[in-house]
Specification:
Layout: E1 8-13, E2 19-24, E3 29-35, E4 41-49, E5 68-69, E6 75-80, E7 85-92, E8 97-107, E9 114-119, E10 125-130, E11 135-142, E12 147-155, E13 166-172, E14 178-184, E15 188-194, E16 201-208, E17 214-219, E18 225-230, E19 235-241, E20 248-256
Antiparallel strand pairs: 1-2, 2-3, 3-4, 5-6, 6-7, 7-8, 9-10, 10-11, 11-12, 13-14, 14-15, 15-16, 17-18, 18-19, 19-20
Length: 266
């Protein structure tokens, strides 16, 4: 089924299992599709075209990079790299429609380039990883309005690093104590401790991913391991997670995979 936009890059199934939502990076849009009982997709039930630009050369137009739904199935969040915004939509799980929330977006610093969004298990804090500025922005989240208030913006890179790098993935550990973000260029996982009361971040360390261009990583369902997908070196490297400190240590397990870009556990 056509995604209704150029270069679809991310998708999610809603909590009813009846709708699939897709972000079109090149087209700068988001669409929803009904999922039939046999798994096939119907025509788009919703389509929203983003408009605008920002200050970076890669931000001459919109670039929707992800679609996020929380368990309550009320709002859809779309980080748009081209607009420096996280757009927020009301989602109707009965009709599969999208409508702008009030407020309709959370704004980030110009040139940030928000890529992915991760929520804390408590549902009260969210973290946006910014590809272009190599930062993580922390927000308090109002689940009634679907709105965000800025708490902090922090670099994912060491202070003494001066090369080219960009962020890719962000994830909060199941314990809610640690946040991880990947750096492409520095080729590392940045580890942060999360303040339990404020939701703000404190840097812990940077661990090399033992490969190039860690475009994605995923934490195992039990929270014991982190799998780093190094797109540029054709491997997936497995790290053990210390549950007390959040630190990573390589297990020695390395999977040879051609250009890995996404890891999902079922």
């Amino acid at each position: 089924m056509p995604s209704r936009g150029e270069s679809p890059c991310h998708l999610v199934v809603d909590k009813t299992g009846k709708w699939l939502l897709a972000a079109n990076y090149g087209g700068g849009s988001v669409a929803a599709f009904r999922i039939a009982n046999d798994g096939t997709l119907g025509e788009a039930s919703a389509f929203v075209q983003h408009t605008g630009s920002s200050v970076h050369p890669r931000q001459r137009g919109p670039h929707a990079h992800q679609v996020v739904l929380l368990p309550d199935n009320k709002f859809v969040f779309v980080p748009d790299l081209g607009l420096d915004k996280i757009l927020v939509y009301h989602f109707d799980p009965g009709k599969g429609t999208l409508s702008a929330a009030d407020p309709p977006f959370a704004a980030l610093e110009p040139g940030s380039g928000p890529r992915h969004l991760a929520f804390h298990p408590n549902g009260r804090v969210a973290y946006a990883v910014n590809e272009l500025k190599s930062t993580v922005a922390a927000f308090s989240y109002n689940k009634t309005r679907g709105s965000f208030d800025a708490l902090q913006t922090i670099s994912t890179l060491p202070k003494d690093f001066s090369g080219n790098s960009s962020c890719a993935e962000v994830a909060v550990h199941q314990s809610g104590r640690f946040l991880y973000a990947s750096n492409r260029g520095h080729d590392s996982i940045a580890i942060f401790e999360i303040d339990r009361s404020k939701g703000t971040l404190r840097p812990v360390e940077h661990i090399p991913t033992q490969g190039k261009t860690p475009r994605h990583f995923a934490i195992s369902p039990a929270g014991d391991y982190l799998f780093a997908a190094n797109q540029g070196s054709d491997n997936v490297v497995v790290f053990r997670i210390d549950r007390n400190t959040g630190r990573l240590s390589p297990t020695g397990e390395v999977l040879d995979v051609s250009m890995p870009v996404c890891i999902t556990f079922f």
